[in-house]
């Protein structure tokens, strides 16, 4: 696995503190309910509108003696008093009347348990230390996460732009990271800050009133109701008041306000001493409220959701890491003995998985092959073939393990002639598609003794089909026969199901196409656009087909019979009633849009199958145009009835067949060019373009769409793709 400093720090800290973070989040979820419960249960008094003078007077009127009052973060006022019956008691009061409104309840044992675990893991000082350290780790994990997010989204200004989907866990990790990053930074920072007090690194300043007792006056005495400081201070600003112990003039009120401490003469109301609350204390107060959610229902709820999100981050983070760890660089031979060298530029490991597979296949074919990261490039005179597999990051930049490649290459002289081939991995969603692969090819181009064996091939979104096309070309040039790369899609152990053939058309002469209709033996919910991986037998790999769902809810497959095609031959030999083993792969990114003012479907050949299903089930009668490219009108034979029925039922507005050997003799992209205003309208109005069929057609159509976007001052095509206005399933 190859990772950058930020990714490594993010991962290493998450792994090392995962058990503590897990405990803190689970207990945090429980504790978040406490302020929610308190907030709901607490009697509400308008403490902003009641002044402290009223509070003190009413207490003095109601009780024999008052020791003190406290106002908590929920704005509940409690008093410690001697009642008329002579009992010492502490309870909640109405601040306006001084009357008792409720007992101070014992904290529930669930919250007590969760709090102890949350604060000290039941390990006293050692536990508190680990909890503090965990908060610190969480803070760093959040900061490194932010850096990774900024890199992924290409800067702050794009932070809320749509996220490029690679898989569910990666998408969820980034999506929720964006939402919960700030609350988690606040939780972790406040946690660290509160911990500093536990270890006396920071201390609460204690207010020691400095008063010259000789000079305290008992006159002019005024009633408490007239004390300016009490009259002008609402109860909401008070944290605690300690009442004078006796009626001696040297005893005074000790008042703790939100922002300062005061000593107040009990006869004259004069302020005897005053101390601003220290910054440390104030930050403590904010940290405490932000960390616990006390007194703010909405924030408590945010804390609850943040703790739940941390659980998701832990789970999805591990899923992502395990996936990335799947491929590792391993070498069987010494580099000096190898004729083939594969260099890999990969940040998150997916390019590496292609490269490792290719290395193994070359070795199987008897080629001594070495694999290395691009940064580790070194030359040996036995080298004949240099194959570079590289991803692109940032704005067309190299992945972290390829940053030194250019310098290394410049310092190398190829003593003997070598052949090089570059394979670029990237995504159309980025403006600089596979740019670093182009840079690499240019650099190699300039070297002496280096010949281009196969010119640059680019792969969008880790497309296995596209990789297989490169493989076939590279194989034929080097006279090697490679099996198909079937990557993770097919290597995953999926459950196979049994399907029965309910219909099969004969082969269409000259076109070699046929339709198969399958029905799942057990009930299954399928959607047009899903993929069916058909098993042609034990010794063969599965083959993927885009499926359509017919009006009778059967699976429609449109198949082209290939001369040596194991799976297409297998399907063609089936008879009605035969059973087929296959598994369904959900392909959510290629479903018919639920809401779209207009849909343009573009297909060639058998790529029409999912669209046949989609138009059949277009019950809302959304306007759909279907462009379909084929050699001649006979190719339509199998699909004609479905298309006619969809048009009659207004489920398909326009069907535009484009025949390359008839009429104008042109291709779908030529036909689309005649309808540019309609495409511009569609992009502007949130319509959707769906493409299914050959990669060649896809590339031509994408080139046209890019041109249309540029010429008509629209957004970039990748922006529409990110918004789900361009859906593709090409092979
Ligand atoms: C943050 C980020 C930036 C990217 N930038 C580009 C880019 O500029 N051009 C491009 O073609 N692909 C870009 N990609 C797509 C990756 O190159 C592509 O997903 C590649 O298959 C990843 O390979 P890896 O898993 O081996 O690192 C980017 C991906 C991410 C996450």
Automatic annotation (TrEMBL):
<feature type="transmembrane region" description="Helical">
    <location>
        <begin position="297"/>
        <end position="318"/>
    </location>
</feature>
<dbReference type="Pfam" id="PF00258">
    <property type="entry name" value="Flavodoxin_1"/>
</dbReference>
<dbReference type="InterPro" id="IPR005625">
    <property type="entry name" value="PepSY-ass_TM"/>
</dbReference>
<feature type="transmembrane region" description="Helical">
    <location>
        <begin position="12"/>
        <end position="33"/>
    </location>
</feature>
<dbReference type="Pfam" id="PF03929">
    <property type="entry name" value="PepSY_TM"/>
</dbReference>
<dbReference type="GO" id="GO:0005829">
    <property type="term" value="C:cytosol"/>
</dbReference>
<feature type="transmembrane region" description="Helical">
    <location>
        <begin position="171"/>
        <end position="194"/>
    </location>
</feature>
<dbReference type="Pfam" id="PF00175">
    <property type="entry name" value="NAD_binding_1"/>
</dbReference>
<keyword id="KW-0472">Membrane</keyword>
<feature type="domain" description="Flavodoxin-like">
    <location>
        <begin position="340"/>
        <end position="475"/>
    </location>
</feature>
<dbReference type="InterPro" id="IPR001433">
    <property type="entry name" value="OxRdtase_FAD/NAD-bd"/>
</dbReference>
<feature type="domain" description="FAD-binding FR-type">
    <location>
        <begin position="494"/>
        <end position="593"/>
    </location>
</feature>
<dbReference type="InterPro" id="IPR017938">
    <property type="entry name" value="Riboflavin_synthase-like_b-brl"/>
</dbReference>
<dbReference type="InterPro" id="IPR039261">
    <property type="entry name" value="FNR_nucleotide-bd"/>
</dbReference>
<feature type="transmembrane region" description="Helical">
    <location>
        <begin position="129"/>
        <end position="150"/>
    </location>
</feature>
<feature type="transmembrane region" description="Helical">
    <location>
        <begin position="338"/>
        <end position="358"/>
    </location>
</feature>
<dbReference type="InterPro" id="IPR001709">
    <property type="entry name" value="Flavoprot_Pyr_Nucl_cyt_Rdtase"/>
</dbReference>
<dbReference type="InterPro" id="IPR008254">
    <property type="entry name" value="Flavodoxin/NO_synth"/>
</dbReference>
<dbReference type="GO" id="GO:0004783">
    <property type="term" value="F:sulfite reductase (NADPH) activity"/>
</dbReference>
<protein>
    <recommendedName>
        <fullName>NADPH--hemoprotein reductase</fullName>
        <ecNumber>1.6.2.4</ecNumber>
    </recommendedName>
</protein>
<dbReference type="InterPro" id="IPR029039">
    <property type="entry name" value="Flavoprotein-like_sf"/>
</dbReference>
<dbReference type="GO" id="GO:0050660">
    <property type="term" value="F:flavin adenine dinucleotide binding"/>
</dbReference>
<dbReference type="GO" id="GO:0010181">
    <property type="term" value="F:FMN binding"/>
</dbReference>
<dbReference type="InterPro" id="IPR017927">
    <property type="entry name" value="FAD-bd_FR_type"/>
</dbReference>
<keyword id="KW-1133">Transmembrane helix</keyword>
<keyword id="KW-0285">Flavoprotein</keyword>
<keyword id="KW-0812">Transmembrane</keyword>
<dbReference type="InterPro" id="IPR001094">
    <property type="entry name" value="Flavdoxin-like"/>
</dbReference>
